[in-house]
């Protein structure tokens, strides 16, 4: 998304530039807990940080759609170029046929001259085709670079700052920012998870995202799992994030520490009582029963993570352990 502002002092604004600004705000906000004058823009740093996280979460939500639309546009342009090339080839073939008929009528001498001219035209056409191929590759590379700019800014600028807030819970203000920080990471990760990384077209997205995905798994997911939290909302957010990250790191790229699957198995067992407690609290608060999405439950998310962890090239022992657990879950269903 790009917004052109014509007012003096403004240049083209885009999601990438906005991500840089918001990331800087997160970094500066961490230092704004000192005593500040009332007129300072950081007089309420927690509110500023929460707003920045919400905007980054919104950008993360639209990331997959904007990149998919960009890829679709590139495919349409490529198809259009192919159609134009086919039309051009047909037109050249038709001209060649007409020239051959004229050469037969005008005689051998004139025919030889026209054949030489046709050879020259073919040489020029070949040169033009070669130039189009060269310039076309350059254009595609430029388009791909533009498409990855926002993702690259999120990976290098925003994600480290969001992770810091997601991991910090030493003060009440930090604890209040943990949930929106995890939501922002969830939105970004699930947008990336929507891409099919078995396709070569998405290889550049995977290369850009992989370092951030690994860092989130090691520094955020594993840290929360190690804390053995009883907060069902926090557990649900982290499990959802783990599911998304596992989907974005195929082919053994997950920095598995060795015990994560046991944590998710334990969370699944605990989810049976945790979900019922949350449901009962919601009923008392709302005064009426509200139908909840069963696929948003903690147990379903745990199964999703375990399914991803069991995929090839997972070691046989880990695959067997997860497989036995999943079969037991299925066998216990009513």
TrEMBL record:
Organism: Verticillium longisporum
Chain positions covered by the region annotation Disordered: 64-124
Record's protein name: Importin N-terminal domain-containing protein
Molecular function terms, GO-annotated: unfolded protein binding
Start-end of Acidic residues biased regions: 77-124
One GO BP annotation of this record: ribosomal large subunit biogenesis
Lineage: superkingdom: Eukaryota
């Amino acid at each position: 998304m790009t917004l052109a502002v014509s007012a003096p002092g403004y240049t083209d604004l885009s999601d990438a530039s906005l991500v840089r600004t918001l990331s800087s705000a997160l970094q500066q906000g961490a230092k704004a807990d000192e005593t500040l004058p009332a007129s300072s823009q950081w007089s309420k740093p927690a509110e500023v940080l929460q707003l920045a996280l919400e905007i980054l979460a919104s950008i993360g939500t639209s990331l997959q759609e904007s990149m998919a639309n960009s890829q679709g546009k590139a495919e349409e342009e490529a198809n259009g170029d192919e159609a134009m090339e086919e039309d051009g080839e047909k037109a050249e073939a038709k001209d060649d046929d007409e020239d051959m008929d004229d050469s037969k009528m005008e005689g051998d001498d004139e025919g030889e001259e026209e054949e030489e001219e046709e050879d020259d035209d073919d040489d020029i056409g070949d040169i033009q085709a070669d130039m189009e191929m060269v310039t076309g590759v350059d254009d595609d590379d430029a388009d791909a670079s533009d498409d990855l700019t926002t993702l690259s800014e999120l990976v290098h600028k925003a994600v480290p700052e969001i992770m810091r807030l997601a991991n910090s819970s030493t003060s009440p203000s930090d604890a209040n920012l943990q949930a929106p920080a995890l939501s922002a990471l969830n939105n970004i990760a699930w947008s990336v998870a929507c891409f099919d990384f078995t396709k070569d077209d998405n290889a550049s997205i995977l290369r850009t995202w992989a370092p951030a995905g690994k860092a989130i798994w090691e520094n955020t997911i594993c840290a929360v799992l190690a804390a053995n939290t009883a907060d069902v909302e926090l557990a649900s957010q982290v499990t959802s994030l783990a599911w998304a990250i596992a989907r974005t790191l195929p082919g053994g790229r997950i920095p598995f520490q060795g015990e994560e699957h046991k944590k998710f198995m334990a969370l699944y067992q605990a989810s049976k009582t945790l979900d019922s407690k949350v449901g009962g609290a919601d009923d008392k608060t709302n005064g009426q029963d509200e139908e909840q999405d069963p696929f948003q439950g903690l147990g379903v998310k745990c199964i999703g993570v375990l399914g991803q962890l069991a995929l090839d090239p997972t070691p046989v022992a880990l695959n067997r352990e997860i497989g036995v657990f999943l079969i037991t879950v299925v066998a216990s269903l009513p």
